[in-house]
Amino acid sequence: MASAATQKTSWADDVDELEQPNKGEDFVDENGIRTTIEYTLNDEGKKITRKIKRVLQKEIVDHTVAEHKSWTKFGQEKGSKPGPDRATTTVGENVWLKLSAGNKSSEPEPSAEQTMKNNLVRAGAGKVVCRLCKGDHFTAKCPYKDSLPGLEGTDTPPFGADDTGTPAEPAAAAPATGGKYVPPSMRGARGPGESMGRPGGSRDDLPTLRVTNISEDTQENDLRDLFSRFGRVARVYVGRDRETGAGKGFAFVSFESKADAQLAMEKVHGKGYDNLILSVQWSQPREQR
Amino acid sequence: MRPILLQGHERSLTQIKFNREGDLLFSASKDHVINVWFTDNGERLGTYDGHNGTVWTIDVDSQSRFLVSGSADNLMKLWSVQTGKCLFTWEFNTAVKRVAFSETDDQVVCVTEQRMGFQGAIWIFDINREGDGTQQSKEPASMFHPVGSKATLCAFAHTPGMILTGHESGKVALFDAKTGEEVHTNERAHLDVVTDLQLASDRSYFITSSKDKTARLHDTRTLLVLKTYTTETPLNSAAIAPGKPYVLLGGGQEAMSVTTTSLRQGKFETRFWHKLFEEEIGRVKGHFGPINTIAVSPKGDCYASGGEDGFVRVHHFDESYFKARPYGDLEIED
User: Is Transferase included in the keywords of this UniProt record (chain A) (predicted)?
Assistant: First the structure.
């Protein structure tokens, strides 16, 4: 027992010894490259290793050039030591000068979308294929978004059928060209609010779910992504505080088909999302609220 | 290539110039300071302090012994390159917008602004290279007022007796130094003010840049327009690259791209054009403001650009620049 007590040392002390090999190194290898290794501690007490490789470059220059190098510094540089001063001289980022015939005129920089696609391909995510028309663009950017069948082969006919959409438009066009301005609400055979030719009906006709107990940070897009696996989501509204814009904990998700909404409700109600258990119900019709 | 950023100025650059060996770069700025740097590593050698106004222009002689500068404080100063001492000062009635040494380093031409009743003028001074350089004559060897539009730029032409001028109207002219008469003129050389004028190494042709979005190559003797380079932005500077059939142009930015997201690296570019085929072949980004001045080292191995942002960026060309053959293997004798 006694011997054990005298030998007992705190393991923390041992660790300290190994902590800092403050000895730096400085050696020249066979290629003439001088490597300097320094060890320092940063603010958080983490060990930082710095390896600096220096290659000595020898250049043969004109006599006059060599002479210039021997001049003493003057003006604001008076008294400075030899070598560039970091306050005035830094090395910039690499720039490429690609010389090719008829360069910039034909090919402007790749658009943001193009660069994103390139990045994906490089990351090995495969080519970009649109789910609707199989073109090489993102589904969200599909030019046929409105007219092609819904996602994942759900072939529910667009709610309300297309005919309500189309005749309303020519009716609106007529008074517009007739001369006198007609306010949108009086424009004709169309529901309240403007029409953008949305397939199906407008806000009030869509089967809508009320989702409660969502987190403050949940955005429209998050819910759209969450519910899109059940069918096409026509509209998402996230209730927000007027001033801060933070979510108030509830949202309304409208589907294009009631069946999709029904399925979504069954599947999502009671499920966890962002550390909260979601509650999904049919939304109450407007008049009763 | 990695450009070296020289941050020696607090305000925009007005002119930069390489010395004949290409190892020293002089920079002048609106902050009244002239800096001199080593081109190989960007190390600052020193500053020439003494002007009380924007230093509009500088020139160095072929021996890197004297530096001459023109400033908005109505002075033209002669400096010793090595020590930074001001050797002599000439006073004028208006700002000095451009100075240039002659090929033989024994004369200096400068152009003073037209302002407040004083006519614009071109002055030629003899430089006494004997001794320490402080013994200079206050009186010009000759002086004349160029007729017509205000002269903004000047340089010695192929012979010391002739002065090339660039004007506010876009005119380019050739004057006889002694008599002041206009020997040749090209009124329509440019449609807007000529912003820069740089001669080729043998002085047989020169390039001008203008706010009319073009740069042009002219023959020195006849002022014939040899080539035209049309861009979409007003140009502030143009330079001829020795050793390669390229010209460098620098200026503002296309109006459309002004609101693009700003990156750490600026979006203002130096454009490389093929001198003979009049086509753009490359661009180098980096400046955070319009490029005001471009210079290429007489050795053709590096170039520098100075911008409105107060930075000078020195670029040493890498292998790919020298090996590039943008138009095939046609070798052009310079």
Answer: no
Cβ pair A99:B4 closer than 8 A? no
- Torsions phi, psi for A225 (to 5 deg): -65, -40
Q: Are B47 and A77 inside 8 Å of each other by CB?
A: yes
Residue A258 CB coordination number (10 Å): 15
Query: Is A101 near chain B, with CB under 8 Å?
Result: yes
In this structure, of A65-79, B38-52, B229-243, the range with the lowest mean pLDDT score is A65-79
Lowest mean pLDDT, pick from A133-142, B183-192, B280-289: A133-142
Chain B: residue whose CA lies nearest to A57: B40
C-beta atoms of A104 and B272 within 8 A: no
Q: What is the pTM of this model?
A: 0.64
Closest CB from A69, A94, A104 relative to B280: A104
Q: What is the 3-state secondary structure (H, E, C) of A109-143?
A: CCCHHHHHHHHHHHHCCCCCCCCCCCCCCCHHHCC
Interface contact flag, B23 A88, Cβ < 8 Å? no
Instruction: Find the helix or strand (DSSP H, E) in which A13 lies.
Output: helix A11-19
- DSSP single-letter state for residue B173: E
How far apart are the C-alpha atoms of B234 and B214, rounded to whole Å? 7
Q: What's the pLDDT tens digit per position in B55-87? A: 999 999 999 999 999 999 999 999 999 999 999
Distance from CA of A217 to the nearest CA of B (A): 27
Distance CA B3, CA A123 (A): 29
Query: What Cα–Cα distance (Å) separates residue B187 from each residue in B147, B157, B165?
Result: 12, 18, 11
Q: Which residues contact residue B91 at a Cβ distance below 8 angstroms, ignoring those fewer than 6 apart?
A: B74, B75
Distance, in Å, from the CA atom of B208 to the CA atom of B228, rounded to the nearest integer, reads: 10
Contact B43 A83 (CB under 8 A): yes
| pLDDT band at residue A205 using 50, 70 and 90 as cut-offs | confident
Give me the mean pLDDT over the B233-242 stretch: 93
Measure the CA–CA gap between B149 and B6, rounded to whole angstroms: 36
A90 close contact with B: CB closer than 8 A? yes
Other CB atoms within a 10 A radius of the CB of residue A210 amount to 17
* Interface predicted TM-score of the whole assembly (ipTM), two decimals: 0.75
CB A80 within 8 A of CB A73: yes
A vs B, Cβ pairs < 8 A, gives 136
